[in-house]
Task: inverse folding
């Protein structure tokens, strides 16, 4: 993540092959956008998509968006199959080569959820959360933006389901 917790811009093909998902077409039109980074080769990632879908069904709409970003080299059809098998219906983008995923600082083979505001600033992030993923997303959504904006200097470790501090440290 770049300076001042600005979310890196992206333009990625969707799983359906027709649309391109662009950060500048997503962030400004939703109060909050959850970016769900996953890999089909990561069983925890695929299993976690079901919890993200539950959250999406409860909160997804005009003010809250959920977008999956798949970062395997695997082709879109195979990745789409993994997403569909988990029940995920929220939009999915294919990050072939993992460049966008790397720019967000997501470690290889790791599930991560980032919350981005309308102003394209990262509000919160959970790197490799375990347990109740949709509850973690609810907690991220409920946190006031001022309190959720990470302070400089901290880091998160895998399995940490607490608010990530110092997101800029992942750049």
Result:
């Amino acid at each position: 993540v770049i300076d001042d917790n600005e979310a890196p811009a992206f333009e990625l093909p969707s799983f359906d092959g027709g649309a391109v998902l662009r950060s500048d077409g997503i962030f400004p039109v939703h109060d909050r956008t959850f970016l769900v980074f996953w890999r089909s080769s990561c069983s925890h990632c695929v299993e976690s998509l079901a919890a993200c879908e539950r959250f999406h069904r409860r909160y997804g709409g005009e003010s809250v968006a959920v977008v999956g970003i798949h970062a395997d080299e695997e082709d879109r059809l195979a990745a789409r199959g993994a997403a569909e098998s988990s029940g995920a219906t929220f939009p999915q983008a294919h990050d072939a080569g993992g460049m966008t995923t790397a720019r967000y600082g997501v470690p290889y083979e790791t599930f991560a959820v980032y919350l981005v505001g309308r102003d394209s600033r990262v509000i919160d992030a959970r790197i490799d959360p375990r347990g109740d993923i949709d509850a973690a997303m609810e907690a991220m959504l409920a946190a006031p933006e001022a309190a959720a904006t990470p302070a400089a200097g901290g880091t998160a470790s895998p399995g940490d389901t607490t608010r990530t501090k110092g997101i800029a440290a992942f750049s």
